[in-house]
Design a protein that fits this description.
Number of helices: 10
Strand content: 15-25%
């Protein structure tokens, strides 16, 4: 249930109403916008007299919410959530580009890629240290050493870093990571999501291979219910019967999630297509669809990449894509 307060309600009046709700065993999520305040009631609201609440002079309207996700719901939080990482903002209408290799392979590699993508306009550096691979014989990442190399690249370039976590046991290694990524395979690792809910740093949550948007938002809810409301949603393609591309990029997810949720939305055209030459058109399409950002794989030598070289752009190719993305984004403003 949400209760929308009238414009001009005093803090004392609001606090009295919140106290009354809490006395009935409800949690209250407060969303203060420019023109109105929304109180989201969490818990068993069946005992709340909707007509009584609506009759209060300070109340503009009362609505019951049928969706199971509450904190991630736009009805609870009409204003877009804006997440700040250093000098980078995500969700404020700007276009953020996150770029870097699928996996960190060496100090020389990550430093070169980091400097090149920054020069091309990337705001954050991505790189895999822990790699979930389908085959146990494939390269699994440099693990703790990979995170150390990412931090070196951050120190050299100033770019905040994004890297994927696979287990809550690894959390101590992620203390200095700016954005923790939850990969598609871990989207419904609920115990991991609960632990991430205890943190105070942004979480980039990727949609699972065959998960619905509702399931993605319920996974976001797990993190937010723990107290961490800095969640970024990521559409990275879903598994369909089509085999030409690695996955099928569901760009309708961008406007759909925008309608359902206030959380920022980014798109991963690299994992969605699995084909480097298709990254540019899908990146441009995602920009036109209204995404808040893109996460793109960039490697200084894709043919020799230890992971996902087929979908990785060279730094020069990324620079070209980034320039076109900026032009599309500017045209839409």
């Amino acid at each position: 249930m949400i209760t929308v307060l009238k414009h001009g309600v005093t803090k004392q009046q609001r606090d009295q109403l919140i106290e009354w709700f809490e006395e009935q065993g409800l949690g209250v999520h407060i969303s203060e916008g420019q023109y109105q305040t929304v109180l989201g009631l969490i818990g068993d609201t069946s005992r709340v007299d909707e007509e009584l609440v609506a009759s209060l002079e300070m109340v503009d309207s009362v609505k019951r919410i049928s969706e199971p996700f509450k904190k991630a719901n736009r009805k609870f939080h009409p204003e877009n959530t804006v997440i700040r990482v250093g000098d980078v903002t995500i969700g404020d209408g700007s276009m953020v580009m996150i770029a870097g290799p699928c996996s960190v392979e060496s100090e020389e590699q990550i430093l070169e890629v980091a400097s090149r993508v920054k020069a091309a306009g990337a705001g954050l550096l991505r790189g895999g240290a822990f790699k979930p691979r389908t085959s146990p014989y494939d390269f699994q990442g440099m693990r703790a050493e990979g995170i150390e190399l990412l931090l070196e690249a951050k120190k050299a370039t100033g770019l905040p870093i994004v890297t994927e976590i696979m287990s809550a046991a690894h959390l101590p290694l992620f203390e200095d990571v700016d954005i923790i990524q939850v990969g598609a395979r871990s989207m419904q690792n609920f115990e991991l999501l609960k632990e991430l809910g205890k943190l105070h740093k942004p979480i980039l949550l990727k949609r699972g291979l065959a998960n619905t948007l509702k399931e993605l938002l319920m996974s976001a809810e797990y993190i937010m219910a723990g107290g961490n409301e800095q969640v970024i949603l990521c559409e990275r393609g879903i598994r369909t019967y089509e085999t030409f591309t690695r996955n099928t990029l569901d760009l309708s997810a961008v406007p759909a999630l925008r309608e359902l949720s206030h959380l920022p939305i980014i798109v991963d055209p690299s994992h969605a297509t699995g084909i480097a030459r298709m990254v540019e058109p899908m990146a441009l399409a995602a920009t036109a669809a209204g995404a808040d950002g893109l996460i793109i794989e960039v490697h200084n030598n894709p043919p020799k990449a230890l992971c996902d070289g087929a979908q990785s752009l060279t730094p020069d190719q990324f620079a070209q894509v980034a320039e076109k993305v900026r032009k599309v984004h500017a045209a839409l403003q």
